[in-house]
Structure prediction request, 307 residues.
Amino acid sequence: MLLPNLRAYRSGFEEKGTKYPLPSVPAPKRGLLSVLPQVKDGKQGWPWTQETSPSIYDERQLWPRLTIVTPSFNQAAFLEETIRSVLLQNYPNLEYIIMDGGSADGSLEMIEKYSPWISYWQSNKDRGQSNAINLGFSLASGDYYAWLNSDDFYLKDVFNLVINTFIKHKTDFIYGYAYSLNKGQQQLMTVPPLLDYFIKIPSLAQPSCFWKATINQPVWEEMHCALDYELWIRIVKGNKRKRIRQPLSVAHVHYGAKTHNPDLKIKWHKDHVKMWSEEGHGPVPEWKRIVFLNRIRLKLYRLLNLI
Prediction:
């Protein structure tokens, strides 16, 4: 498995004049809702006309830095919702990075509109989503990391909940539930307790995952679809993790989403073949046993109301 060197990526940015560390997102005491661009089309609620109250963050406390990276390509229909759901958390020590792959659908104009509140952004051709995520994290200086795709969004007050959970439980990785949103209909996606033995079974909701910077590793850029699944196998196993039993994010269901695009089945298959090859994590001879035991585990969890 050949993983990129994120320090080398950062050096490339610095050679072009990018200052490190990046500036924090402005955090006025009154919140960002009144200063962000006005919302059109009469949209209401979160994250259009609502914000997390800045007062929930004790000014006397030194809040750890949180870095959010958004990789994007031609997702203008969803991008503003994504950006606002990050900014309107009003987190007092936020680093927000948007890596756009050279979109031609109005995304650039949308990013420029919010650029005064973005730590760093660019809109250049890249080598795909995995490369964009690595480029973003190469510039990260936060204590905690997450990435949010440009067709997903966070729910209200999530950063406050997540950071306080990190502080209270001194954990390395946090994961929570999520909603899928399809034509206005929300469906809750629950997540079972994550055990090392069952880590090979995909179960995590990617936009509801946050982790400590000290366990971060580069995304395997040869992964086209299963990049998050493969990354969790490397950074979660053996580390302390905490489950939050409530939704933290919303993922849009649409044809362009990799998880729901039937045209990408071949690429999903290629990812899994590569992942379990000698080049990746190696063959799993006990795969059938793991799947069988996982089915029993999930039934027990449902009986015990654990998911």
Notes: The beta strands are 66-72, 94-100, 120-123, 144-147, 152-154, 173-182, 185-189, 209-212, 241-252.
